[in-house]
Amino acid sequence: MLISNNIRLTVCRMASTMTSMMQISTKPEGDVSSVFASLSGDDMNKPLEPRFAQLKKQIVQDHEEQVRDSWFRLLVALKREIAVIRNSKQSIIPEVNFNDIHNLSENIRNDIRTRGVMVVRGVLSEAFALKLKADVKNYIKQNPHTKAFPQDKPVVYEMYWSPEQILARSDSRVLQALTFANSFWHASPSTHVCLKENIMYVDRLRIRQPGDTQFALGPHVDGGGIERWEDAEYRSCYSSIFQGSWEENDLFDATHRVRAHMSLYNAAGGCSAFRSWQGWLSLSTVNPGEGGLLVNPLLKFTTPYWLLRPFFKKTQQNSSWEMDITSSVWPGAVPGRGQEMNDSLHPDLEFSTSMVSIPTVYPGDMVFWHCDAIHAVDSVHCGQMDSSVFYIPAAPLCEINAQYLGQQRHSLEHGIPPPDFPGGEGESRHVGRGSPHNIKTTEGKRAMGFESFEIKSYMTEGEKEMITKANHILNL
Predict the structure, then answer these.
(1) Nearest to 426 by CA among 154, 4, 23, 20
(2) How far apart are CA 32 and CA 155, in angstroms?
(3) What are the φ and ψ backbone dihedral angles of 75, each rounded to 5 degrees?
(4) CA distances from 146 to 107, 167, 300 (A)
(5) Per-residue CA distances from 222 to 65, 284, 345, 415 (Å)
């Protein structure tokens, strides 16, 4: 009997240990600096493993001459487009009012596609947005042990499950803004993606105080780093670019993106979900230069540039460009980190001119930028008030996003970081942590994986099949 009891006790302890392990995120602990080489001191231009030299040859095989010619066409086009920015007398960032999102002219929609960035005014009321900020600050005060970067003067908090963040994400107007953002994308009718439905990709929050210089995140692109070249499906999103016809590449075609592997290294810099637009909800009034966002509004031209940059190097004789398909150098792409750029590695992007501040934003506005768009933050917060946001990107319903949503739903229930983010116990012991009960709308429950998706008569076959598959994945 004693032996039987001991065995039973051991089994119970093992089960308890396994349950605890399931409630801890699998990625290493860390903060936002884990994502970027520039914030963690890693070399962004060091040679990678020899296999990456072979990868270069493979990518442009049989198209070397076309790629070389296209590079020099691109350099000419970049100079022309950067001059337009330099000479512009007004903001070139498109702005739309939330109440007008269903009645935009095709000219405005084309402008948004061209620039790859937009401001949506008045998604939430200013009073509501300010209350969200005040309440989330109280949540932070209740939990002073929350991880953040920098540690001494926090700006970006490893905080995902405050009641305020959950409330904002599930707001029907926020969800409408995300669906509007996805409406710029398209896919083949048979592709398993539903652009009219959005899953909620849970992200951090930022509260940047005046004078801050530490959160000086330079030009970069999210959605993985070296994966854009290394993963064959991800690379297919840019086939025209790698075949020497960058002018023909469609950066709003989701056909291959929904199957791309954007996180090959299980590290903080990868992203295992498809975010069509990065985005945030403003909780402050922020003018240019006051700790806000910088974007490069030349999506069609900058994307092929940084994608082709590893295939070219400067000659020592006259500093002109020549093709390089023998080295394993991949500028700004460190495996497991996000893709970064700077003036030294990407000189033709002329960041001092081409990176522009978004116009003044107010509490309740949302800002979106394309998943391939280069963006940065002000190196110095020169304002007088905090610059605060909830990060809320757009992520259309597709298989990889449905799978991610199932894992993220588990993270919410246990208060641990979402799957893509630095791990650990997260907010599992936080006072006042949010829960599924804080999701107040049916649309919000659906976006967070607690309500089934519905098939509509106007959907394509691919969309209908995706709805059925998502409900199966989520056991709904």
Answers:
(1) 23
(2) 10
(3) -60, -40
(4) 45, 20, 39
(5) 30, 24, 18, 25
- Rounded Cα–Cα distance for residues 229 and 333 (Å): 10
| b/e map 226-242, b = 16+ CB within 10 Å | bbbbbbeebbebbeebb
Alpha helices in 267-398 (DSSP H): 299-308, 351-354
Q: What is the pLDDT of residues 238-253, one digit of tens each?
A: 999 999 999 999 999 9
In whole angstroms, give the CA distance from residue 210 to residue 385.
6
Distances in Å between the Cα of 341 and the Cα atoms of 45, 323, 428, 445 are 10, 19, 36, 38
Q: Tell how far CA 265 is from the center of its chain.
A: 17
Q: DSSP characters for 18-47?
A: HHHHHTSBSSPP--GGGT-HHHHT--TT--
Task: Give the amino acid at 460.
Answer: T
pLDDT of residue 22: 40
Q: Are 35 and 44 a contacting pair, CB within 8 Å?
A: no
> Residue 202 carries which DSSP code?
-
Pairing state between β 356-357 and 293-295: antiparallel
The β-bridge partners of 139 are none
In single-letter form, the type of residue at position 200 comes to M
Task: Decide: 119 and 98 in contact? Cβ < 8 Å.
Answer: no
For residue 116, count CB atoms less than 10 angstroms from its CB and return exposed for 0-12, middle for 13-18, buried for 19 or more. buried
CA–CA gap between residue 392 and residue 171 (Å, rounded):
12
Amino acid 391 reads: Y
Gap between the Cα atoms of 26 and 20, Å rounded: 12
Side chain identity at residue 76, one-letter code: V
**Could you read off the pLDDT of 204-223 as tens digits, one per residue?**
999 999 999 988 889 999 99
CA angle in degrees (0–180, nearest 5) for 453-184-70? 130
Place of tokens 């006259």: 318
Q: What is the distance between the alpha carbons of residues 105 and 113, in angstroms, rounded to a whole number?
A: 13
CA-only gyration radius of the chain, Å = 23
pTM for this model (two decimals):
0.92
Extract the tokens encoding 467. Answer: 């709805």
Tell me the CA distances in angstroms from 397 to 79, 112, 413, 463, 473, one per residue in order. Answer: 38, 22, 21, 9, 12
Can you tell me which residue has the tokens 């009645």? Answer: 103
- Can you tell me the distance from the alpha carbon of 447 to that of 322, in angstroms, rounded to the nearest whole number? 48
CA distance 220 to 373: 8
DSSP character at residue 431 = T
Dihedral of alpha carbons 91, 97, 101, 107, sign = negative
The pair of three-digit structure tokens given for residue 94, joined into one six-digit string: 């498109």
Collapsing DSSP to helix, strand or coil, 356 comes out as: strand
pLDDT-based confidence at 268, cuts 50/70/90?
A: low
Neighbours of 140 (CB within 10 A): 17
C-alpha 60/C-alpha 241 separation (Å) is 10
